[in-house]
Amino acid sequence: MTQFDGQPSATGFEPELGGHLRQTEDRTGYEPELGGQLRQKGVYVDEITCIGCKHCAHVARNTFYIEPDHGRSRVYRQDGDSEELIQEAIDTCPVDCIHWLDYTELKELERDRKHQVIPVAGFPVDKAMSTLQMRKAKRRSQRRPEAGSQGATPQ
To answer: All domains of the chain, ordered by start, with CATH?
Structure first.
């Protein structure tokens, strides 16, 4: 029997490093998502800047996919394609929203992504508004654990 708890189920396309690796503080660079080989850099898509043109997903199919809720590109597998093919996908991006980063920075960007407010595709993006909304969401999420620890005692 299926349980419905109102929480969206994991699709397997969560950003960058998945599963238990997302919870670990220190990464070695030998994670399976990075091909099991030491890799100095990872690829990251700035979803706020992305316009959903799908060029990267057509070029490097095993690395990028189009996120269905907002129509933006996302990395789902760091070792899906060769670095040359990923670079070709980066070069096809018309708004330059795909970047090579030191892979240790990916965890911080993933944490920030949780609070991102993705605008509707096709409408102009006001960076100041999206940054303000992201800060508000971060503050709200930081207050929730504090309020929970000061709440009522269990009965």
So the answer is: 19-111 (3.30.70.20)
